[in-house]
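Sanity check

After download, print the first record. It should look like this:
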Amino acid sequence: MGTQGPAYSDYVPNNDDTRTAKEKAIDDWLPITSSRNAKWWYSAFHNVTAMVGAGVLGLPYAMAELGWGPGVAVLVISWVVTLYTLWQMVEMHEMVPGRRFDRYHELGQYAFGEKLGLYIVVPQQLVVEVGVNIVYMVTGGKSLQKFHNLVCEDCKDIKLTYFIAIFASAHFVLSHLPNFNSISGVSLAAAVMSLSYSTIAWAASAKKGVQPNVDYSYKATTTIGKVFNFFSALGDVAFAYAGHNVVLEIQATIPSTPEKPSKGPMWKGVIVAYIVVALCYFPVALIGYYIFGNKVDDNILITLEKPTWLIAMANLFVVVHVIGSYQIYAMPVFDMIETVLVKKMNFKPTWSLRFITRNIYVAFTMFIGMTFPFFGGLLSFFGGFAFAPTTYFLPCIMWLSIYKPRKFSASWCANWVCIILGVILMIVSPIGGLRTIIIQAKTYKFYS
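Expected structure tokens:
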């Protein structure tokens, strides 16, 4: 993925910049390092767009599989732990004077060594980012289908496959925006939409009132079903807190000097983003579960049928939001692909190269989304398998490796607690997610 240092020309004097003219030109072309004039509020809405995704709509369902006590505890602990690990990443972005770790794998290489850092970080980051893009293809298609069915009840049923293709068509256009700053308008719209549809989800639920014969017992009746569903729900929650995979890349777009490092405005944006996350997640999860109990669907907007116009609008908001979120997660993937092609394979950094590679990537995620649209199972499987490491405990391991805090100090203990929780999450939640996929696959017809 390229072990070459990122562009530090923000504040490193020119006589210290050892890059050749060709290397500077490449860094100025690559999506992550090409633009460094973002404001702190860019950080806020990029982080909201990255974090508050399809996962929020699955939280009431996760609560139904976790139960009141464990459910509330898991939500709160995840919020606190992921805010702490996000703070660590913001701090580590410029911990070496005169140097910036613009990409997650560059920080991994500094912590674990050139080769090992790549092997540890890149596969996990790719699974997360490509996984999110595939899940968002499915989410976008399902929300479009729901919108169509609500506003046109008498219309002929259209396959989900076609709606996923319609959703993908937007990305065949938007994917050619060159860098993070160029998608800031899309990201802002997506952040506003996420707050809007989350508010509609919990407000419409509250308006509906507690359903007759509401049941807060576990959805499954057998002990093994309850255990596997519990594991699966942990993955759903992990998926909901997934913004860490793009945080260094977002921070790379903020200007930095020794007097005013980028971590100041970045952290301000993160705090705003996390307040918005709390305003979205907790009301949706708790009110949604309180109103519907264990009868809630894996996407709460599907459970809500009335008022029709409001739920239709919320589904449209979801579509707009996941369009922006797809782009946020795709940008680091584009950066990795283009870095390999240009730096390793010596392709020329041209518009046509970018056009071909990005279209192939969008087509790939569309095809996989069409083929395997198991929304709930995909969430928990990817949530545990890759989100738990990159979000819950990999930043802690890097922090311990680099800063080496004293044994049994507050920092040492906090990091080890996060690591233990994250490892447990990584082991158990893919098991539950895989079982969900297997159960749903029994009744599934390809391209239905």
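If your output differs, re-run the checksum step. Summary of this record's structure: Residues 108 and 195 are 33 Å apart (CA to CA).
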